[in-house]
């Protein structure tokens, strides 16, 4: 299995590996079948940009680093329900959120690494909530590597899940951090720490962030963790950039937006190339990333010309030069 852009899809050589869902979580297209060109046009019209597919070169790649789609979709549904409840001035479904926090903490805890499902692989109406789930998954991965307690992980997860909750309460996007904080700090079941994650996720250590222009040492570490995960996820899903390019951008923000230590940890703990990525090595041979074991930045690869698989961690002279994009299909 691998993830491709919808324009790369070839109905002669590929079939869906995971279902495509609409805004009501209904299956638009089931896994295990080819996509007819007519349906492909409809997916493009819906702005669905990514597909999980199976083809000959991705055989045997499981992408275990990604949370399974049903769990991901259930999390999105809980967030959607929560945002709608707040917008309608109803009570926050706190028990469902607490159960979701436990689920996501456990999901991250059993994986070596976390690779995100792009929000642009589902209907546009769900992407705001998928974004929050993805930010939470990344935040938990970094929080776990910081060695924080299970209770703190749950607070971090709750804050990350609800970091944009203020957008359900105000149309002024620039005010959503303050509005969200003021709401969350009054919810008895939510810790003040979780509220501060929502409050400070747009603060930067150079003092140019929002809403208070705080500097290094004044911003809570968990808010910084949520902030770097938020930036990464937005560039991956909204801007459509590949993970390694987003990581290069993140590294340029060391010492300005985020602390040097946090950027270093993020770079070490978030894979640059996810399984299923086609790459060109510095020996000018094409390969596909098959799995991540041990060193997250030196994955296993399989040569496309002869099927040989090896670990880049054991071959230090081999480097990934760039991603290889499949030939784009012309859709008339």
TrEMBL record:
Q: Which InterPro entries match?
A: HD/PDEase_dom, HD_domain, HD_GYP_dom, HDIG_dom
List, for all copies, the residue spans of the domain called HD-GYP: 68-282
Determine the domain of life of the protein's source.
Answer: Bacteria
* PROSITE patterns membership: HD_GYP
Name of the featured protein: HD domain-containing protein
Organism source for this protein?
A: Robertmurraya mangrovi
């Amino acid at each position: 299995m691998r993830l491709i852009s919808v324009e790369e899809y070839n109905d002669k050589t590929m079939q869906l590996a995971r279902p495509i869902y609409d805004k009501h979580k209904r299956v638009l297209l089931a896994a295990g079948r080819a996509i007819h060109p007519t349906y492909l046009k409809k997916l493009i019209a819906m702005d669905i940009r990514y597909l999980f597919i199976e083809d000959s070169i991705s055989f045997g790649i499981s992408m275990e680093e990604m949370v399974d789609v049903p769990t991901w979709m259930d999390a999105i549904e809980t967030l959607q329900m929560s945002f709608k409840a707040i917008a309608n001035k109803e009570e926050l479904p706190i028990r469902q959120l607490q159960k979701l926090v436990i689920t996501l903490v456990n999901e991250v805890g059993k994986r070596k690494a976390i690779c995100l499902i792009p929000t642009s692989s589902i209907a546009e109406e769900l992407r705001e909530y998928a974004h929050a789930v993805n930010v939470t998954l990344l935040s938990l991965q970094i929080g776990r590597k910081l060695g924080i307690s299970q209770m703190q992980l749950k607070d971090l997860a709750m804050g990350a899940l609800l970091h944009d909750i203020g957008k359900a309460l105000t149309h002024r996007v620039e005010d959503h951090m303050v509005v969200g904080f003021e709401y969350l700090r009054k919810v008895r079941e939510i810790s003040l720490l979780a509220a501060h994650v929502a409050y400070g996720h747009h603060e930067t250590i150079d003092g140019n962030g929002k809403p208070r222009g705080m500097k290094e040492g004044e911003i809570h570490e968990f808010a910084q963790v949520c902030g770097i995960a938020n930036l990464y996820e937005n560039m991956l899903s909204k801007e459509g950039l590949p993970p390694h390019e987003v990581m290069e951008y993140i590294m340029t923000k060391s010492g300005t937006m985020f602390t040097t230590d946090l950027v270093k940890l993020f770079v070490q703990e978030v894979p640059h190339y996810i399984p299923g990525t086609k790459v060109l090595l510095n020996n000018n041979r094409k390969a596909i990333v098959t799995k991540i074991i041990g060193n997250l930045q030196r994955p296993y690869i399989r040569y496309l010309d002869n099927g040989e698989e090896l670990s880049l961690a054991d071959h230090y002279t081999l480097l990934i030069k760039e991603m290889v994009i499949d030939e784009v299909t012309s859709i008339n």
